[in-house]
């Protein structure tokens, strides 16, 4: 059953908590505790990363269903069990989460000085929640992890954030919580309808068409906030601006993907008729997001805010792709999510580098950094171009596939969606020019230092992955090809024959 | 021998009287020893509850079944935790008198009788026995103006509620000719068999019990009493009597009046919605943490009432799970509140918690766990309480209730988060006094329960399921 031969998913889910306990038990003066906490967190997350590579190696790409399944009875009489497993869609997100956590620990090595122990514990707790969320195969377990993410993230923004951290933390929490509780009702309705919360079973259980629309709206309330889609995206810029660098990295890299993952795991396969019915609504919101937030990004003075708005635009492309319901669109959405997970996370790290040195994110305070920081300028350029979607980087493949997919649906959708790419080039290059090029006129920038070895260690893997995804996309896409193909096939089968539609009542 | 059914109650009464004699004979300070005896009594009673056989005794007035067992264990746990909380507090505030555990014991006897009542007479008897103890406990700090006020206020309003309840009981008796639950259930099998007078009687009984669980619009006493009473007594108020009164409400509504669901369902729905909304909104402006907890408890009762409104075994199961979780969360929160002391002076403002994470990380962590749990954030215990009542509401098709419930829980989460914010995001103030071991014990035990409930929910859900089934026999 389990290709790894041991419960690998549970291990990588719960191992970070063990790290938490170790950090908690550290005693001594403040400096010792901080140093121990950093190293323990780093080693724990690296071990988790290595263990998660087992998934990469042992995963069978030809199998569309779930793999590495583990099951423990939890509430057997009610059809609820602790069930873990991944398919081609979720395995990539698990890897994304385990990759970004050690990077976050490294990125906060020197910049976090208050409550270091608690900081590292929170990040490890967050890793548990993220990995658990992507590998849960039971709806209740999924929900527990999905919402459990809120607690560490609320604390990360609120304790280690910027001047408006309290406002942003509350806004983040309340927006997400509101969406999630509505999803909880949908969960309960499906539980009641199907008698189980086992996700593989739910995927096979057709829901009554009349009920689907309500369920879809409830799911939309939750996932749209997470993605975030226009007009419920307003928590994101605030949260990003106030969160510490590593918090932004996790937020952009993994938490936003929870929304897209939710659409792919629940909305589209479980509620095919409602998804088809509401697809125009999603297209509209996504196109607005792509164009409007790109224009907003263009006007930003704050680097983090600019990248935050660009995230909304990129995720708009993702939602278009998911709701095209064809292989190219969904594959493109997957690719775009992974690429965005790496690239936007990297961009936040890039901003963090100069923020650590100058303690400002205002674009106007910089200029001409290429003189003093050549390595930094190159790193920034690679990720800027990847974010623009330059061929050869990861960003291109996803956007291209989504445009191909949306062309099959509607020409205008493809056209409007593609304007996002153009606007993306505009605001990203504009940002790059203002920060890196020009003459170095600010006196305090004269003595700024280039990347330190620790920072190079952070960026090298991200650069390699970005290029690898761009040059050899199939080594990633073959993981989810089978799963996506079967999802599209099931969707088409569920939507097309009208006779079967009537039978579902 | 049918008197064996009431063995836990009998034993507890004997323990209470023994402590009374012991306290009077022993002249010097005997609060600690008396409390230890009382704790022993609670433990013994809990063992007896678990081992006593089920059955109906005392001419059908007293019943011991799975439902009463679960509720009794919960009452005893709540009382024991509150008594542990009082050990140090009472000593510091010069109210360490041996009558305290005695009153608590007698009050608990009343609650146990309530849990086992299968006759409107037993119901009233148990309710009054518990209330008498509670009146005195609320005013136990007799030199404190606020405590005396709390006791008097509680006495007057509670007596009014008891009067209404008694009036309802007499109406039910007058229009049906019996006070026995089983006989009432037999008479009232058809919804149309109830006369208007009987319906009025049911409504009065409901009002009296709604007062005891402080559901809106009968909640007025709660904030004042919570604020004025000595904090361990407040902890006691928010745990054991709530469970007992709720158990009574469940049994009365489900067993004798179960077939009259249409007559009282709307009422419960309205009360539930009003409680949830008031609990969520009124707490936002509070600055005193005890008052805040009072409004929070009103909200929690509103959520628990959802399960009753559904009127199915699933609903009752949800209520029981909610109460199990609530007792532990609440006792833990009060442990944290009692720990808020500087230079021997108890503090009550929520701003006194500022920056607690820096001065006392363990206490802050415990408090944060309770707050997130009360807000209903998974994976903490409070989420599972809500999960099961909402599940019952969805199964029963009460969508309005479910939607209002989840939305008020979002609104309510704001003020719980605000406490977390004060503790974690704000600048620290002077540290609190060192915590006595008793408080640390309660906070740690309930904190662990709240945090790790998700690992082992099955036995609790199973017990609640078995208990709920009994009521609908």
Can you tell me about this structure?
The complex is a heterodimer of chains A (505) and B (473). Chain A is built from 21 helices and two strands. Chain A has helices at 8-24, 30-58, 88-107, 116-135, 139-148, 150-160, 165-194, 199-204, 209-226, 235-242, 245-270, 272-298, 303-322, 327-358, 369-372, 374-388, 394-407, 411-436, 453-471, 474-495, 498-503, and strands at 67-75, 80-86. In chain A, strands 1-2 form a two-stranded antiparallel ribbon. In chain A, a hairpin with a 4-residue loop joins β1 (67-75) and β2 (80-86). Chain A is globular. The model of chain A is unreliable at 500-505 (pLDDT under 50). Helix content of chain B is 75%, strand content 2%. Chain B has helices at 7-25, 31-51, 66-92, 99-116, 120-138, 145-176, 181-187, 196-212, 221-228, 231-238, 240-254, 261-282, 289-310, 313-338, 356-359, 361-375, 381-395, 399-425, 437-452, 457-471; strands spanning 55-57, 62-64, 341-342, 345-346. Chain B has a two-stranded antiparallel ribbon with strand order 1-2. Chain B has a two-stranded antiparallel sheet with strand order 3-4. In chain B, α6 (145-176) packs antiparallel against α8 (196-212) and α14 (313-338) packs antiparallel against α16 (361-375). The chains are: A mainly alpha (505), B mainly alpha (473).
